[in-house]
Every structure is written in C-alpha cells, then in structure tokens.
Amino acid sequence: MPDQWKPATVAIHSGHIKEAFGALVTPLYQSATFVFDNAQQGGARFAGDEQGYIYTRLGNPTTAELERKMALLEGAESAAACASGMAAVSAALMTHLEAGDHLISSNAVYGCTFALLSSQLKRYGVDTTFVDFSDPLAIEAAIQPNTKLVFCESPVNPHLQVFDLTAIAAIAKRNNLISIVDNTFMTPLLQQPLTLGIDMVIHSATKYLNGHGDVIAGIVCGSEAHIHQLKYQILKDFGGVISPHDAWLILRGLKTLDVRLSRHCDNAEKLAVYLNQHTKVSSVFYPGLENHQGFKYVGKQMRRAGGVIAFELIGSEQDAINFVNKLKLFTIAVSLGDAESLIQHPASMTHSPYTPEARAEAGITDNLLRISVGLENVEDLIIDIEQAL
Ligand code: LCS
What we know:
Elements: H1 7-13, H2 39-47, H3 61-74, E1 78-82, H4 85-96, E2 102-106, H5 111-123, E3 127-131, H6 136-141, E4 147-153, H7 165-174, E5 178-182, E6 200-204, E7 218-222, H8 224-238, H9 244-254, H10 257-277, E8 281-285, E9 308-313, H11 317-326, E10 331-332, E11 342-344, H12 356-361, E12 368-372, H13 378-388
Parallel strand pairs: 2-3, 2-4, 4-5, 5-6, 10-11
Antiparallel strand pairs: 1-7, 6-7, 8-9, 9-12, 11-12
The structure holds ligand LCS.
C-alpha cells in the first residue's frame, strides 16, 4: 500500500487477496476447512513450519483481508475479526486477564459490556472498578496491586461522553497497565486510539463498519504479539470467530464507509442543532455542540462528532416513550450505524443490564433517548421529530 493513501482509499483498495481469475471483488471463501497436499504438509502447517490455511476457526482468506484492512485503517500491526462486538470485547479482555486480576472501566459503557464486566468476569475471579474516566485522578486512585487493565468507550454509549484518550494511555503506561478502547461510535476514519498510545482497539463491526444492519461481528486491533495471542489462544479455544460470509459483507460495507460517515455526521450535526433549540427538549448530548463536554476534542482527538445523538425531553419517562411511539420515519430499534435512523430508550433497552443505581451513577437517566442518525434526507427526519414533539 502506498504510504500516502488516505483512509477512504485504503478501505477500498488495500489488503486485496491475489486472486486466480482476476475478480474485482474479493471472493467469499465459504469453506470450513482447507485441503493439504499430503499428511506432511498438514503436520507442517499445524507446527507453524509452513504458511497456509488449515481450518476457518484458525484463519480464512476472506476474513484475513478484512483483518488486514482494519489493521491498516487503525494504524495497528494486526487485527482479529470476531463473531460479534461482544466476542471482540470478551476476547480482548481474556487475552490479558486471569483469575485474581482487576481492571478499571469507565462507569458508562454499552449495557452488555457492563454485564460482562460486573457479572460474567466476576464468576471467573476478575473484579472491575467503575469510575468516571473524565477524572484522570479517579482512574489513578482506583489502581490496585493486581490491576492489569483500563477499559473505556469514547464517545460513550449511550450519552456520548468523551474522554481524553492521550491522558488515559499515559496513565496506563505509567502504571504498566494495558489500555483498551472501544472505538465503535467513531470508526478508524474519525478516531485512531492506537495513535494516541492506547494498546488495543475494539469495534462492534455490526455498526458503521458494515453499515447495512445485516451482520453481527466485531474486530480487535493491536500489536502483532497481542493479536497473535488473541487469535491462537482465545479465539482458537473459546471459538468466537467471524463467519467468512459476514467478513465478506463487511468488506463490501467498508468501501462506502467514508461517504456514509460524511452523511451520518452532516445529518447528526443538523439534527443536534435543531433539537438543541427546541423548547420541549431539556438536554442534547452530542460532541458537535459547543455546550457538550466533548466539544473540545472534536477536530483533535476525533475528526468529527459522529452520527449518534442522545437527548432528554422535558417531562417524564412516559412522555419520552410516548414521543418515540409517535415517530413515523424513525425506526424503534437498538443498534446504530445503519442507513435507517433508529431510536431507542437506553434505560429499558440497551442499558437495561445496569442496576438502577449503576445507571444513575453513569448518568443514564430514565428519560434519555438515543438516536442513530441514518442516511435519509435530514429535513424529512426533522419534520418527523417536529410532528412527534
Ligand atoms: N461496543 C459498543 C460500543 C456497542 O455499542 C455494542 C453494541 C457492542 C460493543 C457489542 O456489539 P455486538 O455484539 O452487538 O456486535 N451496541 C448496541 C447498541 O447500542 N444497540 O444494540 C447493540
């Protein structure tokens, strides 16, 4: 890949398989296993003495192209594709943690990530302390002798809080901790945490990377050594690998990521300004608005503010629910990053795994709503919100 290629070009052209028939589009290698010329060759591949594919849980040519592209886009040495965003989160954590270890997480994260950290990992002897990552002193104060890792999303799902990733990476380095950032809301085109000193980056590829609402998948990017361990220990033995068909669909999605993101961001910026001036809206959480705590990071740590907006209406939780039910163009559904604009109620949906106390601590109120702004004409979206309000 020429060094000067910009991300939009990399997403389309880099990492291609050399293909026998000259197909423009990467072939889908929908094969569970790969044939050896003879028994010695099979043995040599298992021993690592000969390069080549063995079995799709250990690697697949279509999947490998996705992994090469994502590594290039994130500025990583290597990447691993996983069966879901949660498979990526759990595999990244399991690569570094064992019973008796401790990690520090931001107190607001995607609901199932919270459940993984607060319930599942506990069953395996790993403890998590949740703190407000906007206060670096709080992170340092939570470090224990057995702390191995710091974890956060930025911007946070659901209310778009933004953290200083350079400061978090520095704290991790100073204290010999691994730092992991979930970059799902930004994609590598808007933010590259590894270039800020973070050790590992996670994506739910279900979202913008695929972009068409028809795949569940995840990606982890990091150093050659970390990804090797993740692939050949965690994914090999726990088994959360991606289907080649899903990798193929994401490769197709990546070709339009740059143009899709421009439209998502343009639409979200306009919708956020509209919501912000509305008399029935009490707060809007969008880093592109000057009054948001994340505004100072836009144009620096993150290129643009992204396509997700959270907001609160004046009134009760029931008023918020009534508003959602009155929308005609917005689809009531969880997920984000699709062509369709989606709306959901985090307290009862994506963040329902939280206890009410943990939700309050994380600033996820009962009347908070979250929109994933789609690719429709933004004036149609505004007309729909206006009639529902
Ligand atoms: N990380 C973040 C930041 C997410 O938003 C999600 C899913 C995941 C990881 C897990 O990815 P998955 O396994 O679903 O591919 N977030 C969702 C959401 O906000 N609505 O539905 C799913």
